[in-house]
UniProtKB/TrEMBL annotation, chains A, B:
Residues 89-377 form the Tryptophan synthase beta chain-like PALP domain. Residues 1-23 are annotated as: Disordered. Keywords: Lyase, Pyridoxal phosphate. Transmembrane segments: none annotated. It comes from the Bacteria. This is Pyridoxal-phosphate dependent enzyme. Gene3D superfamilies: 3.40.50.1100. Its cofactor is pyridoxal 5'-phosphate.
Amino acid sequence: MTAATGPSLATSQRSMGDPALSYPLWPPLPRGCPRTSTPETDFPLEVDYAYEDTPAGLFTAPPATATAPGAGLDRWAPLLPPLDAPGLGEGGTPLLPFGDGLWIKDESRNPTWSHKDRLNRVAVSAAVHEGAPGIAVASSGNHGASAAAYAARAGLRCAVLASAEAPPAVASFLRAYGADVLPVPVEHRWPLLNEIHDRLGYHPVSNLTRTHTGHPFGSEGYKTIAYEIHADLGVPAAVFTPVGYGELLYGIWKGFAELRRLGVTDTVPRMFGCEPAAGGPLAHAVRTGVPAAVVPVGPTGAYAIDCAAGSHRAVRAVLDSGGSALLVTDAELADAQARLASQGVWAELSAAAGLAGLRQRAAAGERFDGPVVCVSTSSGFKGLGVGAEPLAPVEPTWEAVSRILRR
Amino acid sequence: MTAATGPSLATSQRSMGDPALSYPLWPPLPRGCPRTSTPETDFPLEVDYAYEDTPAGLFTAPPATATAPGAGLDRWAPLLPPLDAPGLGEGGTPLLPFGDGLWIKDESRNPTWSHKDRLNRVAVSAAVHEGAPGIAVASSGNHGASAAAYAARAGLRCAVLASAEAPPAVASFLRAYGADVLPVPVEHRWPLLNEIHDRLGYHPVSNLTRTHTGHPFGSEGYKTIAYEIHADLGVPAAVFTPVGYGELLYGIWKGFAELRRLGVTDTVPRMFGCEPAAGGPLAHAVRTGVPAAVVPVGPTGAYAIDCAAGSHRAVRAVLDSGGSALLVTDAELADAQARLASQGVWAELSAAAGLAGLRQRAAAGERFDGPVVCVSTSSGFKGLGVGAEPLAPVEPTWEAVSRILRR
């Protein structure tokens, strides 16, 4: 077995409202920076490290085996917060060639079949470190089930403030790991999350603020996607990701920025954040020049990324990388989902947003000088319509069967 | 990227009815050995290799990266049939520590979230090699969807002879990859499969015979599980797997037997095949001393491994390894499933059969002199009851929520 490659070098929490402001690493401040946040904008915190102590060879030595515990997130332990919660083999997902310089990072290959496992390994580790009796999470699907799995593995209780409108298969998923699943109307989720945190001491692994700050350690888990892409491919010209709050987008950006800072690479990719056109707080913030926005949201099948509140993290990733915020329609999402399935990757509708964004830019004539990675975040099993339509029997004769097969 | 580690060393198809009998490698003979099979027993074929040409370091050199294409099945290309179909990053699944010497091999981390992807990469490769216009498969779930994914990736058509009783979420899964899904009564599946093969030239990746022979290349894909376990852990004392036809059980056994033959290891594990008590052709064959059996099957929630026909492969794995065939009840399966979920692994009921078998043996006082691996074959999303019960809203007040959390 591969052990972790060294202790965490995390030193402090740095304000994204003013990078000159730092707070101790512990406790994590889930409500963001107390000094720079305003009634309009909550500024997140992120983790700083003793980068100068990064072990030589961290980014060049291959893992001892491809499959052992330690080949996923643990491999990058020096540049993550302490991994005190036991893992489930998260990370180490494949990068699939799709031709013409396009690569799909298939995050459905994580322990609960979405990218959220990278965040929850790190955030639940913070709960273990703090000695919390449980964790609390607001989620309509992937995030809640992932948090429940890591809580179960760590022996912590888990409260999931869910939506009663979760797709039926996702309802089974949310319940699978023994969490207390509490479906409440969406406007009650954050107030109750705050109360569970304040009164019971449950560690929050979801956002507690008006614009999104989230768990200050969460995006760190997503950095490992950048490290893996770099190990497999080098630095791509562009990375397209689905965006709900933008933690994934920011985490991948931060990982590549660290590789440049450490002298491992010379370049960074342009980051493209892809939101459902029904909402789009990131696109609104970038267009209007504010640090983060809250927007009305309309209906979309991409329920997993249908967020009213944006985050300053996502804005930073787009602006600092020279990227862009893209709004994709449900029709564009469905086209991208079909393209993935036609190559053997069944992705949730939301998970196809990265590829939908790339196809939109390509149709507008944009070309990239190098490989492009689209992150497909989650399995098709989490989709809204999954399980809605049973199979219809066909007549069990050669005539009927051959008619279908000769279409 | 890691390239495959060398060309295939496959030489021929060897009869499991008489190992002195060999056939050319091409075409694959899906109806088993034409010379040794009898009306009672169809003897499978398996693949033989020029073992003496195995590249030095195949089992000791680490992969170049943990995540690149080539880190999964391609790494073992010399000891697999030619991998002519494009991959989806199958294999390379994590081995999770569960304490007390128990390890769970989480096969839900494959491209379509079950172990079947290892078989289908290899079997669909044979279809590509043969220039077949499509593939044909009889399956109620995992095998059919996996075959459809690999066929889509390879640009082949795919006919899935399914059951109209597939769980609703599995119905969506089967349709996801664009296959022709043909739900017919079970007694029509094999006759129609034979017709599709004979009349349209579709390559069969399912069984065509009375006792199971299956695709002669299929079990080869499962060997890679043994190679991965060896790389991560060495040779365990015992391996417990779910058994439907027993291709998985045999494949893992063959992989360990090859490691011993090549001088890489000195020992092999005992192989325990775990079947639903509602059927159990393997247990029947072992108990009565026949090469393979067909038994009546009763109802079970473990629909994915509820097989009437057994195979000689599975019998060989049990007898040659000094293992055993175990019958597990649905209650034992549910207990094992709950134990997995309590550690963050949501497995399909059938997928928990390996752990159910181990717990049965442990309760009977059996102890193993070394680590034990249970293979968990598939994601909980494929379960019978998934999606059957929506979430029931709770009153969105602190009083109601705290009452639940303080239980």
